[in-house]
# Entry
Amino acid sequence: MKKIIIVESPAKAKTIKQILKGEYDVISSKGHVRDLPEKEFGVDIKNDFEPEFKIIDGKEKVVQELSTKTKGKEVFLASDMDREGEAIAWHLADILGILDKKNRIVFSEITPQAIQKAVKSPRYIDMRKVQAQLARRILDRIVGYKISPLLWKMLKANLSAGRVQSAALKIICEREIQRHRFIPKKFWKVQGYVGSLKFYLTHIDQKRVQMQDVTKEIAQDIEKNVKKLKVKQVKKREVRKKPPLPFITSTLQQEAANKLGFSVNKTMQIAQQLYEGIDTPSGHKAFITYMRTDSTRISDYAKQMAREYILSNYGDKYLGTQSSPQKKGQNIQDAHEAIRPVEISLTPDEAEKELSKDHAKLYKLIWERFVASQMSEAIYEETTIIFECEKYMFEAKIEHRIFDGFEILFKKEKEQQFETLPSEVTVTKWQIEEDETKPPSRYSEATMVRALEARGIGRPSTYATIISTLIERKYVIKRSQELVPTVMGFVVNHYMEKRFPQIIDLEFTARMEEALDQVEQGQKDYRKLLKEFYEQFSKYLDDAQKQWLSIDIPTNLKCDCAEEYRLKVGRYGLYLSCPKCSKTNSVVLDSPAVLDDKMYFQIEKQDSPQMTCPSCGGELQQMDGKFGRYLKCKNCGRNYTGFARGKCPKCSSAVEKKISKNKKVFFKCTNQNCDFISWLEPSDEKCPECSQNLYYKKTRSKEVLYCQNCKKSFSIKK
# Structure
């Protein structure tokens, strides 16, 4: 009789089945099978927050198959090793009637030795982990289901409020306000050259000077009068650069964003596939260890594997110390290892033959980081040269690498060579530029992850979801790599600050994460935690349900009568109203905006289509409706989804953007006598080879111009 192993992912099941070679029957639950009901609250607050779980719609067949296949057999539950994975195992055990048995197995890597070790030492389901996950799920359900309807009622849009999501939105909005209030200060950058050696102004009259304090007069005096410099001092010191720590979830997300340009969501999707296993030319296999972790700990087996590889390929001088430093912090769970390759012998060059381009890139990042973490330090000789001329002092620094250590894995820019200087040198040229101080940068996905981690908001497994939810809800838009809050985002944040200040308080959110950790550690009862939270939350909720939050905010957008519009909320949601002539107008909810503490909306004007109605020639106006933005003719009232960037290739009329029944975009000529229709958007560009019209076409990485006749692509001219 075969034993059964249940995992949550079909890819993971396939990998384990191949490893165990028929010893066990490995089946997948295909994710969660039971949850709080989708269309009901599902939590009995009066009955000590008792949750009501139901089989997820569409999963009835999966549950039936699991029940049939496991009946009378020994079952092992092998879902992921985090809180969510433990909760999945508990739900399955409860449904299958095997709760009180040692049937839970965990592993941080899908390898023969890890799987075999796990099945030999099953344990009971960790109810403390389950309760921590239940508490999180119920907390989020309370916030989402109680606040979201209030937002729907007021703003007439498909909005949501979330405990962690709202705190993250506040961080982004606060940064935008800081940028809005920022007053730049002009200064002069003073730097010069002696040959190829660059130096900077550091002191005036023996006092250190900051660059932003350098005035135009000082800069001009230096450029005019400082021609020769005396070499006052040359200092040398040894600098040791420590190898990086192996990746945890947050640092992997940040590095993949910075070096590969991956979104946080994309990074986690690829990492999940590398962990669970991928079909390759040499078979189905896993490549990395578990990717949701906040610990930099490395197992003894992994350390030994790394040492052997480094000794064999680089020699003993490249070998790091036995005990690698570990990241310390009060919120670190240390439940499992850092992210590393399953087999270090599978180098990035070898993996590239088996993986897609993006998978290979992320694997290379993880492999190099892990190997580097176990290597020796890089050693530099740092030379500091101090120059002086009357009251001014200047400084130049040169780093010369003595030993590359872990940096042998990475490409290094060509170093500047230091040559011995005479006691007096002539300035080759001055590079003096006017500049101004810059406002704090907007958050990118990478820096947002860092901010959430630093504040203790969310956990490694939630960062990607938090950011993607804000973007999907159009509370923020992603412009280049920046996260920019929208009108809707600011209004929702404003509402939460007025009605539920506790929910978006960053310290409160961080303390709640700590409380959930205490539940997992057995230091706090999860029902008591829920009760304490709801006692405070219900007071805010009662007030919010009784009082309508009116909005009347001045904006920078001007009416035809030259008066500034005010942003208001009415029975149909947000709109613009002129206090002078009472004219109303729609507001683009996903346009970037700033709402500062003086209650003033600085809304970026959107490029409105410079097009008249194809039917009557009337003026088109942008509107927001139930199904998104559209164009409405002020004269005949006809609505349009939008227009193509190019004219009709057949008759040169305007081409309307339309949506099919299957929600797919297509393009159709507005001229009733023309039969032009296309899945591709026409442009006004001509093919350089056949002179036919080109069309816009999206590839995986960018948008190009495509010729349907020649079947060739061309870059879009900017």
